Amino acid sequence: MSTSESTDEVPEDGYAGELAEAVVVPETHAPAEAHAMRGLALLLCALFCFACMDTTAKYLAASYPVPLVMAVRYAVNFALMIVLLAPRQGRALVATQRTGLVMFRGVSLVLASLFVGLALQRMPVAETTAFIFLGPMLVVLIARPVLGERIGAIGWTAALAGMGGVMLIARPGSGLDGLGIVFGLGAALSNATYQLLSRILVATERTVALLFYTAIAGTVCFGLSLPWFWGGPPPTPKLVVLFLSLGVFGGVGHFLFTAAFRHAPASILAPANYLQMLWSGLLGWLVFSHVPDRLTVVGMAIVAGSGIMIAVNTHVAHARRGGRLRRSD
Q1: Closest listed residue to residue 161, CA positions, set 306, 314, 61
Q2: Lower Cβ count inside 10 Å, N or C end of the chain?
Q3: Distance of CA 313 to CAs 1, 94, 318, Å?
Q4: What end-to-end distance do the CA atoms of the chain give, in Å?
Q5: What is the per-residue pLDDT for 143?
């Protein structure tokens, strides 16, 4: 759901879509004198914004069609980018080397957003977030045949454990809506596709352009669907504010997420991404009075632990490759 002048040097964003680059960008992209605690604080604030965006989307989706909710979110995000970034970035905002693949990446995030919204209609925020975080584990499994990356025992173990955690959350008797689980898995698959394309495109495309094309894809796709999904009660001033806040939470969250990587290395910040589940659980309790049961909490902990293992393993692999390259020089 954000950038400054050198946005091409930092991860793109932090949510469902918005989770990939934190574990993909080489460690050298963070300044050596980075203040890790400041970076962590910025990341926690960014994740809180993303959790607020999800909670608000769930609240609105109870009364309005999901495509309408998402159309407003992306439209506000797109408008903010035009107003705040276009005057300074100029042509860099739209300049790409592989435009077709960039647009396909944007559409994959649109699908992830749609599935997330539909899942939020039927499941609590924390459980939906846990499904979304299955994406990085699916990327690990896909990375070898698609990117030729070596997975290793740790990667396999973490990915399979993460899937086991999701199965524990979605177990029979958990009380979760069956269709909501299907939508949650659809969100995870779409998010994995988005992250995989991010890994491919990060070598050639500027982050600000990737952000902008994502906003375009969401605005156009959801905008075109509005004639079939226009409905709901007349919006009160409170509801208008909530609708507008979707884009604000997303924009501010992306800005803080990006800023965090200017102060701390990815090896520190990537594992902390899973604290978003904590924020989601807290907001789900405060707004919807939902408290996950013990087995669901265990499943969430397994998903988070698996994601942290993958993030740390990715950092170690980058460091080893960097060391080998330096020795070969």
Answers
A1: 306
A2: C
A3: 26, 34, 9
A4: 40
A5: 65
Identify the residue whose tokens are 């740790």.
154
* Tokens at 301, concatenated: 């902990």
Residues 6+ positions from 45 with CB-CB distance below 8 Å:
256
Residues in the chain: 329
Spell out the alpha helix ranges (H) of 123-201.
125-132, 135-147, 152-169, 178-201
Structure tokens at 206: 């500027």
Q: In this predicted structure, what is the pLDDT of residue 197?
A: 82
Angstrom distance (rounded) from CA 302 to CA 123: 19
Nearest CA to 200 out of 111, 100, 271 is that of 100
Distance CA 76, CA 219 (A): 9
How far is the C-alpha of 289 from the C-alpha of 311, rounded, in Å?
32
Could you tell me if 285 and 296 are in contact, meaning their C-beta atoms sit under 8 angstroms apart? no
Phi, psi of 112 (to 5 degrees): -60, -40
The pLDDT assigned to 220 comes to: 92
Range of 71-80, 248-257, 292-301 with top mean pLDDT: 71-80
Q: How far apart are CA 61 and CA 70, in angstroms?
A: 9
Residue-wise DSSP of 19-78: -SGGGTS-GGGS-TT--HHHHHHHHHHHHHHHHHHHHHHHHHHTTS-HHHHHHHHHHHHH
What is the average per-residue pLDDT within 129-146? 72
Q: Report d(CA 197, CA 77) in Å as an integer.
A: 21
Q: What pLDDT score was predicted for residue 309? A: 73
This prediction has a pTM of 0.76
Exposed e or buried b per residue across 147-185, where buried means at least 16 C-beta atoms within 10 angstroms of its C-beta: eebebeebbeebbebbbebbebbbeeebebeeebbebbb
Question: What is the model's pLDDT at position 315?
Answer: 60
For residue 175, the SS3 value is coil
